[in-house]
Amino acid sequence: MFGLLLTHPHEFRTLVCFYVYHETKRDITAQQEHPTSGWDRASMRRCWEFLDNTSRSFAAVIKELDGDLARTICMYYLVLRGLDTIEDDMTIPDEKKQLILRNFHDFTKDQQLLHKYHIVVEEVNRLVPQYKTVILDISSGKETPWLCDQLELANSMGLLLQKTNIIRDFREDSSMVLDALKHACDSLDYLRLLKNQSMFVFCAVPVSMAMATLTLCFMNPKMFQRNIKIRKAEAVHLIMRSTNTREVLALIFRKYARKIHHKAKPHDPNFLKISAMCCKIQQWYEQNYSFRE
Fold first, then answer.
1. Does CATH place domain 147-292 in 3.40.50.170?
2. CA-CA distances (angstroms) from residue 83 to 11, 21, 127?
3. Burial (0-12, 13-18, 19+ Cβ within 10 Å), 181
4. What span, in angstroms and rounded, lies between the C-alpha atoms of 198 and 142?
5. Residue 277: what are its φ and ψ, rounded to 5°?
6. What stretch(es) of the chain map to CATH 1.10.600.10?
7. Residues 30-71: pLDDT tens digits?
8. Phi, psi angle pair for 63, to nearest 5°
């Protein structure tokens, strides 16, 4: 930490401010939270542990969701991670893999496939039926009913996150960054519709980090040599800022769009398209919020 003070003093200040002033909005371990967080059950405590081990960044925002929404999202995340684990397992023949994925609910207790996954299954079965039916029902009662009809916007935001992860994994640059940026304005449109603050925070933090990651990867030769990620202080800064208002989140998008535009090189075959996409993101902000400046 003190080494950071010497090398990156501004980042040191950001981290100190976060640890001193940031207040966790919810403590799932508190006794009054047990009815909705399930912390009083050993199986659910283990599921929260699984979540921490698989994604610390998502775990932090999931735990601050209201009521039983946090536990529900936790379980859906673990189920999807289970599916993803099978999909990525190169030791399973494709024929068997397809059978497993199509009948995942029948294979989830197979210890050889996913170690300890029966604990996840046990907790999934505790969810109320409306949460088990479809993921869209997660927001039932938390957001306006018509939000469930905004599938195109919701899917677009999900694609922004997924494509950013793919770019890091496959170490692609210009073309895939351009493809991911196409979802930025849709993501802002969707986030602007969210009324529940905990739902907004849950979505805002990862998408702001996705924009930061795209900026880091774009025109960065280091990404072809090793796995790169945004610095911890930048992540903390995004957590503190993107959880405020929709306008602040839009400013974050505009900031990174400008950085990507600045890094673009005229000799890049995607230069004009990337420039146009970055301008589109900036234009989105100006059309929706510039009158407040």
1. no
2. 37, 38, 19
3. buried
4. 9
5. -70, -40
6. 147-292
7. 999 999 999 999 999 998 988 888 776 678 778 888 888 888
8. -65, -20
